[in-house]
Design goal:
binds 2-acetamido-2-deoxy-beta-D-glucopyranose
Length: 319
């Protein structure tokens, strides 16, 4: 039993032991979440040299979080390491409201479609029926609605009676205001070619440049990830397997004891010549045991005759 517990614990903690060995291992915040590897790192789990400045991520439960300057928290939906693109989604509350504080020039990222960026003018309007589709629901309060009108358009084109201009938002894409999505790219560090070739990009020992190293047949860290998964799966499988075997052995020995007791009672009664009533199930159990015995006797090449004597020999053998 103690060995059983020991190896169960070994398989439970084995994955943790493996994780502890290499701190720059590829990680992720959830099973379907984006992989985190150079130039990104998990800033709470991995040392600085695992990533590049400005590429610090962390996990908020199962979400992968990036903080853009200044204090704009966004969720990372997808990282394309080969094309050096990152897909982000607004986190906690209203992204359009926080765009005022977003300053990408203080980050390593740029807008992906920077040729399609527009400036918008934000209007605070009384909530009446208007033929304007550029509503930003999360900025509205009861009785008021907020619209973002592209600054290149003529405000005469819009029904802006009883509206107040609040502010201007420069250089954004409509889907950022509408769907709270941000698609960014980075050019530094340049690892795209290395990634596209399936190699490993990392900081060189001088920590001033990146280096591209050949990946063995499978990525070491991914191999490790597989090993961790394999360890966890095997551990869980063996644990469950052990429990099943343990229960089976336990219950079958209990069953045998019970059957034996019934047979002994039968024999006792037979010897005392005072037959007792047996339930159908009990008789079936006894005959099954006798039949098993019959098979094993037949295997040994002995002729088996159905009778009390045989029954006695058979049952004696099982006890
Ligand atoms: C954005 O950040 C850069 C670098 O920190 C700074 O020079 C610039 O003034 C900032 N722009 C705004 C609009 O705050
Ligand atoms: C719009 O105006 C109303 C009334 O003055 C105000 O309560 C609300 O906060 C304003 N909304 C924005 C986003 O400024
Ligand atoms: C680090 O960089 C300096 C200058 O760029 C170079 O002289 C030196 O050999 C490098 N050291 C290593 C360990 O690569």
């Amino acid at each position: 039993m103690s060995i059983f517990i020991c190896y169960k614990f070994f398989f439970l903690f084995f994955p943790l032991l493996v994780v502890g060995l290499d701190d720059c291992t590829t990680t992720r915040c959830s099973k379907g979440g984006p992989t985190i590897r150079f130039p990104f790192r998990n800033k709470f789990l991995q040392p600085e040299h695992c990533g590049y400045p400005g590429f610090d991520l962390y996990c908020d439960k199962s979400k992968t979080v990036l903080e853009l300057p200044f204090s704009v928290k966004v969720e990372v939906k997808k990282i394309d390491y080969a094309s050096q693109e990152i897909h982000l989604h607004g986190l906690d509350g209203c992204l359009p409201q926080k765009l005022l504080y977003l300053n990408l020039s203080a980050s390593p990222f740029q807008f992906l479609e920077d040729d399609r960026l527009s400036n918008y003018v934000m209007f605070n309007c009384t909530a009446v029926e208007r033929k304007i589709y550029n509503n930003i629901p999360c900025l509205g309060v009861p009785g008021y609605q907020v619209y973002c009108i592209p600054s290149y358009s003529h405000s005469d084109d819009y029904d802006l009676t009883s509206c107040i201009k609040i502010r201007e938002i420069s250089s954004v894409l409509w889907y950022t205001l509408d769907q709270h999505d941000l698609h960014l790219k980075w050019s530094e560090p340049y690892c795209g070619k290395c990634e596209a070739q399936g190699n490993i990009c990392s900081l060189d020992t001088n920590k001033s440049r990146t280096q591209c190293t050949n990946k063995p047949k499978t990525h070491r860290s991914e191999q490790r990830g597989d090993l961790i998964n394999a360890g966890a799966t095997l551990g869980a499988f063996l644990s469950v397997g052990s429990l099943v075997v343990f229960y089976y052995v336990y219950s079958s020995s209990r069953m045998k004891k019970k059957n034996r007791a019934t047979i002994e009672k039968f024999l006792e009664d037979y010897r005392a010549l005072k037959p007792t009533r047996f339930s159908y199930a009990e008789i079936r159990n006894i005959t099954n045991q006798i039949q098993n015995e019959e098979k094993s006797v037949a295997k040994q090449g002995k002729k088996f005759t159905w009778g009390t004597e045989a029954l006695l020999t058979a049952t004696k053998k099982t006890t």
